[in-house]
Amino acid sequence: MADGVVHLCFPDSLDKFMISKKGVSVKIIAKDRVPAMNKAVAELLSRQVLVGVPSEKAGRKQKKGKINNAALAYIHNMGSPSQNIPQREFMQSGVAQVRDRVEQHMGNAGRYGMQGNVAAMERELHAVGAIARDGMRRKLHEGPFEPLKPGTLAARRRRGRTGERPLEDTGQLRNALDYVLENSKRRKV
């Protein structure tokens, strides 16, 4: 190394720092973190946080041939005029209500990815999923939604149910809302 030449690297990756007694020469020996960082960035780009009704939670405890939780979530979220079911959107608005927290954890995941810390990145992605899921569950519980029709309330009472909140009858739909972290092989670094 020639006098007056300085090599710089990130402070947290320093393995050894040495200053020459000749005066101006500085020698920094650093661990090469680029491969770990590239691996973590590739991992981050290959991960998707999916929030909704995962297939393993789509089933309902009821007679065979009835609708599953994923279809029920879609119908209530979008509405079905042909079936006289009003739109009671809870998925997008539930996630929108927690957007700031989701963005904070996504930023953390990106920073950990850039540092090559895959485990911390993974924890942040799980936090994103849990926050989004809880936002949807909260919206499903709190509404506000169009009230239930008298016929729906009467049918509930015949089954022994007294609640009048839309989207809350057995709790199966709420409990089916969840998240999964999925590998997506579509993206490459």
Largest sheet: 2 strands, antiparallel
Distance between the terminal alpha carbons, to the nearest Å?
34 Å
Structural class: alpha+beta
Report the strand count: 4
Order of helices and strands: EEHEHHHHHHE
For the largest sheet, list the strands in their spatial order: 1-2
Q: Helical segment tally?
A: 7
Low-confidence stretches: 1-21
Percent helix, as a range, is 40-55%
Give the strand content: 5-15%
Gyration radius, rounded: 26 Å
Number of domains: 2
Descriptive account of the structure:
By secondary structure, the protein is α+β, with helices and mostly antiparallel strands. 44% of the residues lie in helices and 12% in strands. It contains seven helices and four strands; from the N terminus they run ββαβααααααβ. It has a two-stranded antiparallel sheet with strand order 1-2. Helix 1 packs antiparallel against helix 4 and helix 4 runs antiparallel to helix 5 (118-142). The longest helix has 25 residues, at 118-142. The model is unreliable at 1-21 (pLDDT under 50).
Q: What is the fold's blueprint, element by element?
A:
Blueprint: E1 14-19, E2 26-30, H1 34-45, E3 47-52, H2 69-78, H3 91-96, H4 99-115, H5 118-142, H6 150-158, H7 172-176, E4 178-183
Antiparallel strand pairs: 1-2, 3-4
Helix pairs in contact: 1-4, 4-5
In short:
The chain has 189 residues and is α+β, with helices and mostly antiparallel strands.
Keywords:
elongated; 189 residues; 12% strand; two-stranded antiparallel ribbon; two-stranded antiparallel sheet; alpha+beta; 2 domains
